[in-house]
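Mods, move this if it's the wrong board.
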Amino acid sequence: MKSLDNKTAIVTGASSGIGRAAALLFAREGAKVVVAARRRKELDELVAEIARAGGRAVAIAGDVRDEAFAKALVDKAESEFGGLDVAFNNAGVLGEMGATADLSLAGWRETMDINLTSAFLGAKYQVPAMLRRGSGSLIFTSSFLGYTVGMPGTSAYAASKAGMIGLVKTLAAELGPKGIRANAILPGGTDTPAYRTMAATPESEAFIAGLHALKRVSTPEEIARTVLYLASDASTFTTGSALLVDGGVSINRT
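Not the wrong board. Structure tokens:
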């Protein structure tokens, strides 16, 4: 038996990187998947790849800042696949970077809306669906930035991701008695399109790798395996956690 047989999952930010890897892994492990992102073409390609491998998925393109989009994803999970068991709220951006005093209010608000408000909106509609199911697993992509590490120029990003951990802990306390778990993953450097913008030269790539105890960055598939753990019954006693999957960047001093 596969670890997500008879489960339905939503994955946001599924057009690339960690979200795409998680959607593919969920489908291989038996889940029916609703994949979401802004880019329709990439989502359609993902759905086709899942179908070729014998899985089932549907795509909805939209903006995670839109409350109607959060609702539409849950409605699709219930109408197409009969319910919702897992939600991986993964969509996010680095946002406007720079010294805190130089950040624009518009840039701050955009980062908060995409990273943190979208997480709230996701949970707002996912929780009732999971209550109808009788159980569920909510998973969010946070960051070590703002939690174990402060890095200059990342105020909006770090604050949004730290706020997400507060949301996760509250959800876990609220929903634990009702059979729903809530956890956050905190990835380290991961080979995604966002990472490649920062590691555009051999020197910057080596610098980022060197920050980690493992002296390398992760693949999206490595992070997806941790997401699978939280989605599956392997983690039935894990809730309210901020789970570091960071290659030791939080503890490394070498």
